[in-house]
From TrEMBL:
Domain of life where this protein originates: Bacteria
Residues of the DNA-binding region: 35-54
Transcription found in the keyword field: yes
InterPro entries: BetI_C, Homeodomain-like_sf, HTH-type_TetR-like_transc_reg, HTH_TetR, Tet_transcr_reg_TetR-rel_C_sf
Protein's UniProt name: TetR/AcrR family transcriptional regulator
């Protein structure tokens, strides 16, 4: 008898490759273009196989956001560790925080995850809070450093960080959705004015 042909098993791509492909799809086609079936074709997996790994599209989106944030976190730590004044590093932090422009894929994903978080379970909400917390802690530490060196006026670092991030979040939404008059360069100028008004040693 002729032996039956042996089945070929294709190894699933590393999870990071799947998440990178998901982000690339968002960048190229927006969130509407990200489907389990389409992503499966891009990475050579069935949509059922993807659901085995991620369970739901909500989980896929959150995992993709966490992957993107891990890369941004590495950039953030590098810029905060580099030499220079606290103000220079604060401006670099703001530049990294803000979207690159209209339809920035990372911020597009963030807004989608935020929108879905109203119905998210406790685990998903805790993971989102962990992302927010990392940005906040780094900003508080940077403000505290600037205050201790006399670069910034003495303020409550935690409270000021919360106010600054709220401002940046609002502007970031405007940049991402493309509200006229709130392009990235305009927002950077507004943020610099806010720092002058609230943190400069001579500010009222």
């Amino acid at each position: 008898m002729t032996p039956a042909p042996r089945r070929t098993h294709h190894a699933a791509p590393p999870r990071e490759d799947v998440l990178a492909a998901a982000m690339a799809t968002i960048a190229e086609r927006g969130l509407d273009g990200l489907t389990m079936a389409g992503l499966g074709r891009d990475v050579g997996m069935s949509s059922g196989h993807l659901l085995y790994y991620f369970r739901t599209k909500d989980e896929l989106l959150l995992r993709t956001l966490e992957w993107s944030e891990s890369r941004l976190g590495a950039e953030r730590r590098a810029l905060l560790d580099r030499p220079g004044s606290a103000r220079e590093r604060l401006e670099a932090y703001i530049g990294l925080y803000l979207p690159a422009g209209h339809r920035d894929p990372h911020w597009t994903l963030w807004l989608e995850v935020w929108g879905r978080s109203q119905n998210a379970d406790d685990d998903a909400r805790a993971r989102q809070a962990a992302i927010e917390g990392a940005w906040h802690r780094d900003l508080v530490a940077l403000l505290a450093e600037g205050i201790s060196r006399g670069e910034f006026r003495p303020v409550d670092a935690d409270r000021s960080a919360a106010r600054l991030r709220a401002l940046l979040d609002g502007f970031s939404i405007h940049v991402t959705v493309g509200i006229p008059g709130t392009g990235r360069e305009q927002v950077l100028a507004q943020a610099a004015e806010f720092l002058d008004e609230t943190l400069s040693p001579g500010a009222a």
